[in-house]
Write a structure and sequence with these properties.
By secondary structure, this protein is an alpha/beta fold. The chain contains nine helices and twelve strands. It has one domain: TIM Barrel, CATH 3.20.20. The protein binds zinc ion.
Length: about 280
């Protein structure tokens, strides 16, 4: 089995000073082949720019994903918050279609005063509204990719993400391994621990390909606290066992680097992966 594994930064590379529409030239020159466009503080890109970015990504064979705004809560107890969250996802879907982003990554919501089951019910009905609206607007070329979240107050355990994606068409997971590590109080220690995650995805959704995030992460008993660079590996989760697992499984995986060193660490991940393939 040969996997097609791509690596790239979450957002513009550290040393990049050019326009976002041509960022894929720089990413490809560095030897990377993925890019997650950050709309984390709002979808602000124009249609014209998004189309330029699409062209640039095709020219360089750099796959694009989009991170939707952080401020999304589809399981809120306030109707206006749900409504605004749906609007942000609609804007994201439109922009994703323009730039040909293959995934729209988003954090689904918070439990707030709800039990996890109640929060999931809220979320399902909000997603139904979202899908109906997109259909009525003629937006059809999108894949939402709800992300496993890092705080225990956030909806987004592995099981919840699998359930969301099993229920709704055009939904597939983003697995943030660091978030799973933080949520479980440092639960990812070995290749077997990664293997269990891949098994659940395969059993629950029949997946053979995956969009993912990786960083080293500091956490408290509430979950995620801060992202750290690869050289601060004592925070975990361990990188090498993940790369070994990917290499053995033969899945197509995109690994977006979310450390503070972005493209620099993405290159180190890629190097580590290539070393595993050689051995
Ligand atoms: Zn992430």
């Amino acid at each position: 089995m040969t996997s097609n594994v791509r690596f790239g930064p979450a957002g513009n590379p550290l040393g990049y000073r050019g326009e976002t529409v041509s960022v894929c030239n720089y990413i490809r020159k560095k030897g990377l082949d993925a890019y997650e466009y950050q709309a984390t503080y709002g979808v602000r890109i124009s249609k014209q720019s998004a189309l330029k970015l699409k062209k640039n990504s095709k020219k360089n064979d750099v796959i694009i994903s989009m991170h939707a705004p952080y401020y999304i809560n589809l399981s809120s107890n306030k109707d206006d918050v749900i409504e605004r969250s749906i609007q942000r996802l609609i804007q994201s879907a439109k922009a994703a279609e323009w730039m040909n982003a293959y995934r729209i990554v988003f954090h689904p919501g918070f439990y707030t005063k709800y039990t996890p089951t109640e929060a999931m019910m809220k979320l399902h009905s909000a997603i139904n509204v979202l899908n109906e609206k997109l259909e009525s607007m003629g937006v059809s070329n999108y894949t939402f990719a709800p992300e496993t979240t890092g705080k225990k107050s956030q909806l987004g355990s592995l099981e919840e993400i699998i359930e969301i994606c099993r229920t709704h068409e055009n939904f597939t997971p983003t697995i943030d391994f660091a978030h799973l590590h933080a949520r479980s109080g440092g639960g990812i220690k070995s290749k077997e621990d990664y293997g269990i995650i891949f098994e659940k995805l395969e059993e629950g959704l029949g997946l053979k390909s995956l969009h993912s995030h990786f960083t080293n992460i500091e956490f408290t008993d509430k979950g995620e606290r801060r992202h750290h660079a690869l050289f601060e590996y004592s925070y975990g989760p361990p990188l090498e066992p993940l790369l070994e697992e990917i290499a053995e499984r033969g899945w197509n995986v995109t690994v977006i680097c979310e450390t503070p060193r972005l493209d620099e660490d993405a290159l180190l991940m890629q190097k580590a992966y290539n070393n595993i393939l050689k051995n």
